Amino acid sequence: FFELEEELINRVPPSAEDMLKEIQPEAKGTPTDKLRLYLIYSLCHNVQPQDAQAMEKTLQGYANPSSESPLDLSALSFLKTFKMEQKVTSRLTTKSSSKTAKESDQGSLFSYLSSTVGARGKKLLQGVRNLIPTDKSLPVTKLVESMMENKDSKDTARFLYYDPKLLQTKGPIAESSRITTSFTEGIVFVMGGGNYVEYQNLQDYAKRASKSQSTVSIAYGSTEIFSGEQFLAQLSSLGKAPTGSDVDAALD
């Protein structure tokens, strides 16, 4: 299912009809895999209401209390809250005609979110939205690529440059003294939650870069990395939390 999930994020998604086939009882994978697949599909793409209804009806079949291990569908509640937030944002942005109006609308939106998913829940929503890529390279990969290849970029201008070989220099190295060749080794550490998609995206870049120069090696780490099951468990906890304080407790 990793390849399917990566395809949903990085490539042209399958049709709603094909997605519905992927989550049918006779299809490969566990009910948990199919629920997670649908969540990623819905988070990354606009799903028509009738298609979402058909898929969720199929998933509800796995939640039958009489089954041996009924599927917990609490994550769907969180998904609906998230999609509602997207619609509200879209409407407010459309109606806003000035910067002041936009700031006011965003304030109203955040007030709404505070009463539904809490402050930390809002951060999670924003984080999920920011992780959804618009092309094949994720934001962290674009940043690493610019730094590894010494490209001029406004995104890398705020980073400090140190060279241990220049022992006489104190503090950051002046731009004129920097080496201009590309780097072949890099270490990326994310302060906070990391994920396997970012890791794989960086490895894909390393493979591409290795074709035009020496072998490029990139190590990736983060404060924590959730597995597919842990990701689903966190969304389920958020789906069960009716108040902001409960959401904060679910995230701790």
From TrEMBL:
Segments forming a coiled coil: none
Pfam family, one: Sec1
Signal sequence bounds: none
One BP annotation, GO: vesicle-mediated transport
UniProt similarity note: Belongs to the STXBP/unc-18/SEC1 family.
Name the UniProt record assigns to this protein: Uncharacterized protein
Taxonomic lineage of the native organism: Eukaryota, Sar, Rhizaria, Cercozoa, Chlorarachniophyceae
